[in-house]
C-alpha cells in the first residue's frame, strides 16, 4: 500500500521545482561572473531559497522528510552544475574578448630601441684604466668596509695621528670603517708580495667620507690610486708617468707642475697641477687667476709603509698617486656640479653619448 503524503509535502516539492526553474532561468541570462555569483548566493547560500524551503521540513513526519531532502539535494546539484557550466562559458567568452582587444597587428612598424652608452664617470674610469694597463699596471680591488689597520695604520697613520682628521671617517666599530681612500688596496697588495717587487697596480673604487654634499663634494665618490714599487724608482719616474697621464686625458698641449705638499704615506709628497685650458696659463676665473688647476696628489712611498709591508726600504723604492675621476671628468668635459654624476638625469647623461 502506497504511503499517502500530507499536503505540505506537495507544497514543498512544488516550491523546490519553482526554485529550480527560476534559478536555471537566471543562470542562463547571467552576463558576467559577478551576476552568476549573486545567483549562487541567492539560491544555494546559507540563507538562500533552498535553505528556506528546508526549514519547513519540521512539519513533516519522519517518513516524509527524506523525500523532500532527496529532492532538495537533486535540485541543488542541478543548479550547481548549471552554474559551473555557465561560469566556464563566461570565462571562455571573456578570454576571447581579451584576446581580440589585445591582438597585435604584426604589420605595424616596431618601436625603436634607443641605444644607451656608458655613464660619463664609468667612461673616464675605463679610459684611465686602459691608459695605465697599457703602461704595465694591473687593476687591483679591495673591500669597501675596511679595517682601521689597513685604512690608517699600515699607511703610516697610527692611532691618534693628527693627520687622521684630514679624512672625516664613517666608523662602524672602533676597528671597522667605510674606507676613506683606495690606499688600503695598495697596503694589502704590498703584503701579498711578501717583500718581493715589482708591484705595479692601480686601485679604482668607491670611497666614503663624512662630507656635506654640494657642487664639488660628496659623501661617496670614486678614487683611483696608483702604486709602483721596485728597485731604483725615482721621483723623475713619477713625474714622467703623471705627464703622460695629463697629456693623454687633457691634450698634448697641457703642461704640468708639481708643488710640495704633505701626505702621511709619501715622502716627499707633491700635488700636481695642469695648465688651464681656458686661458692657456694666462689666468682666468676658472683657474682663479693662477693659470693652473690642481688635479691629484702623489709622492714617493714612505719608507715606513714599505717596511710595515715587509719590504726592505733600502733596496726598494716606489711612488704612489691618487686622483678623483669625478674631478677629472668635470675638468675634461666642463661638468659644473658633481651631483650630476649620481642623480641619473637622462638629459645630462645623453649629452655624453659617443664622446
TrEMBL record:
Sequence positions that bind Mg(2+): 267
One GO MF term: catalytic activity, acting on a protein
Residue stretches in coiled coil: 6-37
Gene3D superfamilies assigned to the protein according to its UniProt record, in alphabetical order: Bira Bifunctional Protein, Domain 2
Subcellular localization(s) per the UniProt record: Cytoplasm
Keyword Ligase appears in the UniProt entry: yes
Alphabetized InterPro entries for the sequence: aa-tRNA-synth_II (IPR006195), aa-tRNA-synth_II/BPL/LPL (IPR045864), Phe-tRNA-synth_IIc_asu (IPR004529), Phe-tRNA_ligase_II_N (IPR004188), Phe_tRNA_ligase_alpha1_bac (IPR022911), Phenylalanyl-tRNA_Synthase (IPR002319), tRNA-bd_arm (IPR010978)
Domain of life: Bacteria
Pfam family, one: tRNA-synt_2d
Example of a GO biological process term: phenylalanyl-tRNA aminoacylation
Aminoacyl-transfer RNA synthetases class-II family profile domain sequence ranges: 120-331
EC number: 6.1.1.20
Matching NCBIfam families: pheS
Stated family: Belongs to the class-II aminoacyl-tRNA synthetase family. Phe-tRNA synthetase alpha subunit type 1 subfamily.
UniProt-recorded name of the protein: Phenylalanine--tRNA ligase alpha subunit
Source organism of this protein record: Piscibacillus halophilus
Protein's gene: pheS
Amino acid at each position: 500500500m502506497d504511503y499517502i503524503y500530507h499536503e505540505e509535502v506537495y507544497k514543498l516539492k512544488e516550491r523546490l521545482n519553482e526554485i529550480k526553474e527560476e534559478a536555471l532561468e537566471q543562470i542562463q541570462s547571467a552576463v558576467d561572473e559577478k551576476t552568476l555569483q549573486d545567483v549562487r548566493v541567492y539560491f544555494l547560500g546559507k540563507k538562500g531559497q533552498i535553505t528556506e524551503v528546508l526549514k519547513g521540513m519540521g512539519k513533516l513526519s519522519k517518513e516524509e522528510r527524506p523525500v523532500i531532502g532527496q529532492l532538495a539535494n537533486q535540485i541543488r546539484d542541478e543548479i550547481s552544475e548549471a552554474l559551473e557550466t555557465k561560469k566556464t562559458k563566461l570565462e571562455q567568452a571573456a578570454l576571447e574578448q581579451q584576446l581580440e582587444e589585445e591582438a597585435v597587428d604584426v604589420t605595424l612598424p616596431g618601436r625603436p630601441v634607443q641605444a644607451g652608452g656608458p655613464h660619463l664617470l664609468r667612461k673616464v674610469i675605463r679610459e684611465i684604466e686602459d691608459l695605465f694597463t697599457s703602461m704595465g699596471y694591473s687593476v687591483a680591488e679591495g673591500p669597501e668596509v675596511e679595517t682601521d689597520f689597513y685604512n690608517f695604520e699600515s699607511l703610516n697613520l697610527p692611532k691618534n695621528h693628527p693627520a687622521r682628521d684630514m679624512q672625516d671617517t664613517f666608523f662602524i666599530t672602533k676597528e671597522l670603517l667605510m674606507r676613506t681612500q683606495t690606499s688600503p688596496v695598495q697596503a694589502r697588495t704590498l703584503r701579498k708580495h711578501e717583500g718581493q717587487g715589482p708591484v705595479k697596480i692601480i686601485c679604482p673604487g668607491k670611497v666614503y667620507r663624512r662630507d656635506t654634499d654640494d657642487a664639488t663634494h660628496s659623501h661617496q665618490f670614486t678614487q683611483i690610486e696608483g702604486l709602483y714599487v721596485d728597485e731604483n724608482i725615482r721621483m723623475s719616474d713619477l713625474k714622467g708617468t703623471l705627464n703622460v697621464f695629463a697629456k693623454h686625458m687633457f691634450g698634448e698641449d697641457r703642461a704640468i707642475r708639481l708643488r710640495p705638499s704633505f701626505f702621511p704615506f709619501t715622502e716627499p709628497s707633491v700635488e700636481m697641477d695642469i695648465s688651464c685650458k681656458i686661458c692657456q696659463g694666462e689666468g682666468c676665473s676658472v683657474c682663479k687667476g693662477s693659470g693652473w688647476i690642481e688635479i691629484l696628489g702623489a709622492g714617493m712611498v714612505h719608507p715606513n709603509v714599505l717596511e710595515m709591508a715587509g719590504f726592505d726600504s733600502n733596496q726598494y723604492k716606489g711612488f704612489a698617486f691618487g686622483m678623483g675621476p669625478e674631478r677629472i671628468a668635470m675638468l675634461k668635459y666642463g661638468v659644473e656640479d658633481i651631483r650630476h654624476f649620481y642623480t641619473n638625469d637622462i638629459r645630462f647623461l645623453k649629452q655624453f653619448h659617443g664622446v
